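ingest -> validate -> predict -> emit
validate: passed (alphabet ok, no gaps, 811 aa)
predict: started
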Amino acid sequence: MEGKKIMKKQVLPLLPLRGLTVFPYMILHFDVGRTKSIKALEEAMVNNQLIFLVAQKDAQTDDPQEEDINRVGTISKVKQLLKLPGDTIRVLVEGLSRAEITEITQTEPFIMSEVVERMILEPVYDKVEMEAIIRKVHAVFEEYVQLSNKVSPDTMVSVMTIEDPGQLADVIAANIMLKQESKQEILNQFDPKARLEQLLVILSKEIEILEIEKNISARVKKQIDKNQREYYLREQLKAIQNELGDKDGITGEVNEYKEKIAEAKLPEEVEKKALKEVDRLLKMPLGSAEGSVVRNYLDWILDLPWNETTEERFDLKEAEAILNADHYGLEKVKERILEYLAIRQLAKNIKGPILCLVGPPGVGKTSIAKSIAKALNRKYVRMSLGGVRDEAEIRGHRRTYVGSMPGRIINALKQAGSKNALVLLDEIDKMSSDFRGDPTAAMLEVLDAEQNYAFRDHYLEVPFDLSQILFLTTANNLDTIPRPLLDRMEVIRISGYTEEEKVNIATRYLLPKQIEQHGLKKQNLRIDQKVIRDIINYYTREAGVRNLEREIANVCRKAARILVMNNQQSVSINSKNLEKYLGTKKFRYDKANGKDEVGIATGLAWTPVGGDTLSIEVNVMDGKGSIELTGQLGDIMKESARAAISYIRSRAEELDVDKDFHKKQDIHIHVPEGATPKDGPSAGITMCTALVSALSGIPVRRDVAMTGEITLRGRVLPIGGLKEKALAAYRAGIYTIIVPIDNKKDLDEIPENVKKKIKFVLADHMDVVLKTALNYKKKHLYRVNKTDEIKKSSLEQVPTEVDTNLPAIKQ
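emit:
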């Protein structure tokens, strides 16, 4: 070939390649990790993105020198760089032209080389001869493609359209599988004709090798003897049978089940049942629908924790620290768990207790269960029973039904993966029953420590030992739990939190939690305890702390908005600006009357959200002895009112009441707020006191509240919820409370700070109640005559000191 030759010299950064040869017209990407190579790329990006790519002679050399690099390479343009993890760069390059190194000008911090690019402008060659060479190359390359099956059809089409001899040689060389030495030989040829001839020689050798490989493969296949072919066919037959579900094809599956059963070390009865089901599976006909049922049953048997347990934590101090760190209060629950731990150290085989935590919503019944599991180092599973009305959900479905499955108890054990887990049966009081059975009856066996060591699920039909499970149940109300089921559980009552407990919970847990969840920091939001108390008293009315947490979250949201909009560093919230964040106060607490009044007595009531004070008002008017009861009173309160009137009639003279009042006067008893229904047995003595005051004209002391039921003979009967009622009186500013003498034992549950400020008067009879509650010093008797004139007569004064013989104590 003849023509005008041009020698173009350039100084470019050099990047040595390991096991890779780049040809002109070639676009490829590779990863660069060596420091010198990365710096060479950086230099190339500064100078027109050109870099000289040349292959190393030995790919194992990490720091190649001049003698380790081939002389001919490719001037390339860097198209794209992508940084990868681990200080690696993925680079996309396009080969432009071949060049030869004339001098290495720099080796540090990267290699710079002077290269000469040899180009032939307007080449002169024999067109017929060149056309013959190109056709030959096309034919040989097509044969190579058919033998190797490693070149895509698209590449074949693009090669056939190339007219330039040099480009044709480079493109084919870049797309065939050759040793690096062979590719370098083609790259070394600057003359296109010589390059094509060199490519023809190499391709011919490769085709010979491929044909020999093909012949060897054919001979190897022919050398497979009859036994080998039969073995191969038998293996194929087994695979086909396995896919079709043929009995001979499931032998391997059956063997696998038997191995798993042996490894599981199941109880004798369970293992016998499982092996029986495996034998049934082996005998089932092709395409049997029951095959999947048996497989599902065996999978359930093998997934259950027959022998798996977790190592319990017996360190009482550590367990107590975990419980105290997660929850404030709930002392009864913590004490019972620590007692169980102590007994476990002394008696290893003791059965787990079955505890029922009863209390209003939001007091931490469910969350304490998770803390107990953490303290005992047991797996934790929660099972919600709210709305469960089918017995099969507890015991499971019998396998005769389509889609049958085990009950929730077995499913919970599978989920726990341990036979000594803690299982929380949440909302056990909200189960119901219908035509499908009574789930509470199914729970009798589960929660009976004397029976649950062999609990049989209808689906499994084999016993499972539940005696090591620690069952905890939660309920809001015990009235809906059947007595036999309730008898199997140890009930621990969790009453509502006191104000002090709520303040501590909010300060220690709720406020830091909400500050973190809202992306704030402690210094961004300043809230003192007075604000927390105001939120508790005026924005929430609950036994638990759920609404308290919501209101604290509301404050945090408002504060976050102010911080962002006004670019402030902190927000301070106090009692004066609290309404700005939470709006007007939602609730109020009744305060004690400002003065002693006739016919108005203060009672104490229990509600699901805590205690409250209850004013009972009585008006006496001339009439015919009718009795009016208003304020949405329930039947029990109406009966209490009638019992009080009967008691007063029986002792009218001793109480200085007109003995014919039931004939001459109408009595109206009203309990404010009329929109709220009221009922319960503890308002008897309050009604009686208000009636005696109204009939006798003796005012009731404003600083006295009372609770207790009354009998026709004046005896005072015990009541419940004393703790909540005492807290309500404390909030209202009442510091003397009359309680039934039988409730003396309940005084231990009242917080110490409340007992220090409140005087508790223990009453066994109405005489004690009246002497304590009525202010005889201001005794006046009001009578209404027929002309509606009020006549006022003063009676003798009675000292206000309570008789020292009364069974009163001051805590």
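The chain is about 40% helix and 20% strand.
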